[in-house]
Amino acid sequence: MSQKIITRFAPSPTGQLHIGSVRTALFNFLYTRKHGGKFILRIEDTDKERSKKEFETDIIEGLSWLGLGYDELYRQSDRGEIYKNYIEKMLSDGSIYQADDKVIRFKNPNKKVKFNDLIRGEIEFDTTELKDFVIAKSADEPLYHLAVVIDDFESGITHVIRGEDHISNTPRQILIQEAIGAARPLYVHLPLILAQDRSKLSKRKHGESVSLNYYRSKGYSAKAIINYLALLGWNPGTEQEIFTLEELIKVFDFSRVHKGGAIFDEKKLAWVARKHFNLAKLREK
Ligand code: GLU
Prior knowledge:
Rossmann fold; three-stranded parallel β-sheet; aminoacyl-trna synthetase; ligase
């Protein structure tokens, strides 16, 4: 590929950095570093009620502790003018309109949207059922879908690498891209991380054990967490299980990312951690 790869990790600062988000950040990081691209951290704080500065700090600090460096950082809350310009332009070209309930809705062309996901293959949606969905509360308050599409376009994102829970958001985002004349990025939806009972790993159900801080405070090293998370949904195609970040950058590829959900197993994490611990001790000698 001759085009420079540009990716983003786009967490919402509405809670402590989730272990699944760390895995998303890691796969973005590995792929981007492998191909000499640019990796952006985008803080998605359009939800003013739920977004908190302390969670943003937690995300930034967590990534830094893990050694997942990024090339650029921006916040959606600093980009109001950019969104407003798009909203005004779209209102005047008729692709969005102010509805009777005062919110701004997207004029759905009601069509079939087909996209190719690098992991899941071809996905087709009929957008009719989405109706004329709301994309902004007002010209000053864009909602998630609009902000994501504008930011991805303005940043020249080539690969949208994110959790599988965003597959159902993709058709709306593609419709918005088409309305603003944005190029379509490649989509890479990563398998969910599941708890032992195969339910989605969520804070509501599984409490603090879904956060990076939980594992940090238990004493797991950054090296062990990175190594273990790499194996959640990906395999190297060899017997090797213990990797440094540098080694992962060399061998990582989407062709070995699985479709099925990956079960989080703390026993395996502990095993990986012991291996790294022993390696570190060997090096000290
Ligand atoms: N902000 C979204 C989240 O926290 C991610 C959006 C995206 O990757 O497109 O889940």
